[in-house]
TrEMBL record:
PROSITE patterns to which the protein is assigned, alphabetical: HTH_CROC1
Gene3D superfamilies, alphabetized: lambda repressor-like DNA-binding domains
CDD domains the record matches: HTH_XRE
The HTH cro/C1-type domain, residue ranges: 17-73
Protein name: HTH cro/C1-type domain-containing protein
Length: 192
């Protein structure tokens, strides 16, 4: 059986992706987890063994997980040094303390165990107002009456938002859209 040899151009693009990831101080596992991908899956892109790395949508997805852009990836590919991150949006890592807030983001401290073990009391969540959450991502729901709920987003439709975490992660809640002033994605968690 012949051995797989990646295309040299794909390999160079994968190496540029690896340089961008390292500049952000992330492991392959940390970068992959931001996309619900394993470290091995991320490593396949960096080694040029996963197809699609030249596709713009794939590049946006991968560089977005690194709080970067496909343009930054192209600059590295062209020989420029990786630029430091301009935002901490989506950054989460145990043992590191990120003080800077992403532009326009807000913080909220978890006060109960409704989201345990995802977020224990004392965890500070950083969220981006108006940024739609992905399924399984934490979200902050600002209600029309002024109340604020922190939940795990599952899905939404024209009439309702479906979330988990009202007292336990296995408990589902359906919230009428007319009661929601704003739905925002959690972009970072800070452990106490």
């Amino acid at each position: 059986m012949p051995r797989f040899v990646p295309d040299p151009e794909v390999l160079r693009l994968g190496e540029a992706l690896a340089a961008l990831r390292r500049e952000r101080g992330l492991s392959q596992a940390e970068a992959g987890s931001r996309l619900d991908m394993t470290s091995q899956g991320w490593g396949l892109y960096e080694s040029g063994r996963r197809p699609g790395l030249f596709r713009p949508d794939v590049q946006r997805r991968l560089t977005g997980a690194l709080d970067s852009t496909p343009e930054a990836l192209a600059l590295i590919l062209g020989g420029a040094a990786p630029e430091p991150p301009t935002s901490t949006a989506g950054v989460e890592s145990r043992g590191r303390d990120f003080e800077a807030l992403a532009t326009g983001s807000k913080r909220l401290e978890v006060r109960d165990d409704a989201l345990s073990p995802w977020a224990e009391p004392g965890v500070v969540l950083e969220y981006q107002p108006g940024l739609p959450p992905r399924p399984g991502q934490g979200c902050v729901i600002e209600m029309t009456g002024g109340a604020v709920r922190v939940r795990l987003f599952e899905r939404s439709d024209a009439n309702a938002i479906h979330v988990r975490g009202a007292g336990a992660l296995d408990r589902w809640e359906v919230i009428d859209r007319r009661e929601v002033a704003r739905l925002s994605a959690v972009i970072a968690r800070r452990e106490p």
